[in-house]
Structure formats: C-alpha cells, structure tokens
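Limitations

Structures in this collection are predictions, not experimental determinations, and the ligand pose is part of the prediction. Treat each record accordingly. The example that follows, with L-homoserine as the small molecule, is included so readers can see exactly what is and is not provided: the inputs are given verbatim, and the output is the predicted complex.
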Amino acid sequence: MNTTIKPIQVGLLGIGTVGSGTFKVLQRNQAEIRRRAGRGIEITMVADLDVARARAIVGPDVAVVDDARRIIANPDIDIVIELIGGYGIAKALVLEAIAAGKHVVTANKALLAVHGTEIFEAASAKGVVVAFEAAVAGGIPIIKALREGLSANRIEWIAGIINGTTNFILSEMRSKGLDFGVVLKEAQRLGYAEADPTFDIEGVDAAHKATIMSALAFGIPVQFDKAHVEGISALQAADIRYAEQLGYRIKLLGITKRREQGIELRVHPTLIPAGRLIANVEGAMNAVVVQGDAVGTTLYYGKGAGSEPTASAVVADLVDITRLHTADPEHRVPHLAFRRGELHDTPILPIDEVVTAFYLRLQVADEKGVLARITGILADNDISIDAVLQRESAEGEKQTDLIILTHDTVEGRMTKALAQMQALPTVLAPIVRIRKEELN
Ligand code: HSE
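Predicted complex:
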C-alpha cells in the first residue's frame, strides 16, 4: 500500500450535528481509515453560515467559508459532503458539485426520494458518485446491504422502523399508557422531536427512506409521489392497549413489497406480532427487516440518527469513494443497485390495491344484533375475520368497544366495508382502522 499518496480532499457543506460528528470521527480514526481506504481522507474546507461556530469545531487548519460555492469552485476538492438538508439550496449545490466533477456524499433522504432520478442521471453522465448511506436509518449500513450484500437475492419485501422520533413516541405511549400529545411534548423537551415535528410524526421522513429502499430493492426509479404516507398523530393510547391484549405492538413501519401486479410502497402505523424481534425495537432505535428469496429473513438494527452514528455512514461512503475514485465509472456499484438502463417501470400500486390485514375498533351500541350486522358487512365484502374482542361493559353502560382483526384483504374492499359499517346507526364514532402485518 502506498501511504505517501496525498490525502483525498473533502469539502463539507453544513457543519451541524452530523457534520461535526463526521469531522470528529475522521480525525479520531484517521490512521485506521487510511489503512482501509488506501490513502488519507481529510476535510480541508467547510462552508457554514455560522463561520465562528464552524471555526470552533474544526480549528485553525481547515478553511472555513460562508459560501458553499467556494468549495464547489475549489479544484483541489475531490468529494463534497452535503449536510444542509431539504430540497432547496441543497439540490442546487449537489447538482453544481456534480457538474464540477465532484463526488457527492449526502444524508439528504428528502432530496433523493424526490429528485433522485435527476441527480443520479446527472452523476452518471458526469462519471461521479452520489453516495447516500446516511440517508436511510443513519448508522445502519442498510444501503450497502441492499445494494451489495443481498445482490444474489430477489428481494420480496422490506419492513422497517426507520424514524426514531416516532418509535420513541410509540414506545413511550405503550410503556406509560400516555396519549400522543403528551408524549410528543416530552419528546420535544428531550430533543427526540423537533420544534416542528411534522415530517417525522406524519410519516414523511419514513416515506422518503422507504422510497429509497424500494428503488434499491426492486430496481425501479425513486418515486416518493407514489408512496402512501400516514403518520402517528391520530393514534390513540386505547388502540395500543387493545393491540397489546391481542398480542400485537403498533409500530410506524415503512413497507415495500413485490407483488405480481406491482410494488407496494407505504408508511403507516402497523400492528405486528409482539414476539417478532422488530416489535421489540424500542425508543429512538431503528431496525429494518429484509426478506430475500435466497437468504430468508434478515434484520438490521442500530441508531438511525445522531451525530456519530450518522457520521459512521458518511465516513463509510467517503472510504468507498476513495477506494473507487480511480475506477472506471462503469465498474462502480450502480447508484440504485441495478445498472443504469436496467431500471424497470413496474408500477407502484395505489393504496386501494394493497393487500394487508386490519385491526378495527368500533364504538358501538351494546344491543343485540349489532355484531351480526357488522360481521355480515365484512362477509358481504369477502373479508374474513381472524379475531374479535369486545370490551366488557360496566353495569348500565349502553355502549362498548368492539375490536376486530381481519385476515389479509385488498384495501379497497375494506374501505367499502368501512363506509357501510360507519353508516349503521349503532356505530357511534368514527371507526379506527390500523393495518396489520404478520411479517412472516
Ligand atoms: N428525524 C429522523 C428520525 C432522523 O427521527 O429518525 C433523520 O432522518
């Protein structure tokens, strides 16, 4: 190994939590990283609007600027790390870095899920790499696993807890029996949820990540606009309790599944059997289950966010690019696992065509014939019941909760049946519907 070769030079756009972690990890482990990559990797230039804070993090030997374009214009920089986030200026800077012939490392799931096709196309045309291990599940090397480790397999489905904020909230709701609003406030106080938590709690962040995994697994373009996205803000503590009585936990899952008719891509609260390993992933941790035809079921677990866990993924990408820097672009691992020109236009199925089981909670009048009418509607719509639980009514109480678990059905059928059930005068409140997956 030639250890005298000049270190590869990296410019960092945005030195917040992940950026400072990346700087620290590169410094602390530089000797081992050099032994792995074949040459040193050095952040030599940082751009951040807060120049003083950036300077305090990187010390006097690194150039600090407030204009990211000065990094892109610097011919000595080989790799640009984009840690600004969002689709605005980050998109412009990534495309400009590519046009300038720089490799790009990014943690920006939103950017890739929405504009990935344009970005990967630009990178391929220019012969540079856009690496994004940090974009999905933080420190868990799930991109590497899907793109390389599992490349023998026909991947059948992926189901992941890929948003730590919502998993923390759901864990607290379950263990303490608290309502969503109370736990969200606590999560914000502890720094697990942002001041504006919309992207996390409404499932958008998880859907960005599921979209990227779906593309890698099935060889299709990234298509965030086709994903079905539901968050956890409407989830009630009562449903978490009933699910538990029936042997299930509720998790916000990102699911993508290959079906004969197309591909399912969806994020929503999901009942999963309490005994599954992934059902026991608690707090802000992430986990992804991947089912491949050869390997069977595999599980990847770890921290999905945070300074050094995410930096771990960013630095791994830097090492990958450093190793492949001089390789013919045709011989590099394709951005989306399948070779350019080999992506398929398999459709993403609309939610009405998704097949899943359901948990239903109906607040009903406690009168004779009510259950019969409801089960009759399900039968008329060709939906098979798996289990029924009725809350014991207190003396003199005139209403009760009826919980129904169904077997797998096409979602459109369930939507129709729900409308019919909702119209019954004995159904006293909006019916709660939560999807259920056995993951076996
Ligand atoms: N906000 C994300 C989460 C981390 O809560 O998991 C970054 O995607």
